[in-house]
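Hey,

The postdoc asked me to send both predictions to you directly instead of through the lab channel. I've kept everything plain text so nothing gets mangled by the mail client. Protein one:
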Amino acid sequence: MKKILIMLAMVAFTLMAYAQGKRPEPPTTDEMIEMATKELGLSEEQATEWKSIHEKYADDLKSRKTAKEAREKMDTELQATLTENQLETYLEKKKERGSRPARGPRE
């Protein structure tokens, strides 16, 4: 009887874990820059600047303690590289998405 109950419990836990599914991974830096290039029409120079800015803050974004501040600083630097039209589009897209970064397709 105990074996049957243990087996049922294991099946139940397995089903619950399976039902929760897997969280999608956040896009890579290159994927984010590719999306921004399409959405905002970034030039090659701007895309290069964006990549270096993302790399500059990469370590700080991994830590929960420093992520919020790093994201705000990074966002300010990214915005400084944009033209007026690009900035307007960027702010509209950001407002549509909320504060979360875009989730690009994974291949």
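Protein two:
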Amino acid sequence: MGHVHMIFGVILIILAILATAWEIATQRGLPRALRGIVIGLFDLQVLLGIITWIVRRPNWSFVFHPIIMIVAVIILHVMTSPSAPRSRRLTGWVVATVLFIIGAAIYHH
């Protein structure tokens, strides 16, 4: 399960970078349906992470990885709404993407 979570995580970080670039490059940002799919995939990743946590039972020094990742997903949900001002959407995507990269960088077994 841990390998699936890790590989899917790398793919999602690339997707987050692409979504952030799309937000920067266009005035309207991601289409509503595409945003929903992207955020839904991140929600799935959180679920896979929780399952991996339960199965592997890592020590408590590892707690920052899931905290950072969950905060990043919450930021996506709250700040990237298509009805939000462009500056707020951009901030949400950029901050979440940076947090995803930091969270992945501190991942270790």
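Summary for protein two, as requested: The chain has a mean pLDDT of 91.

Thanks,
C.
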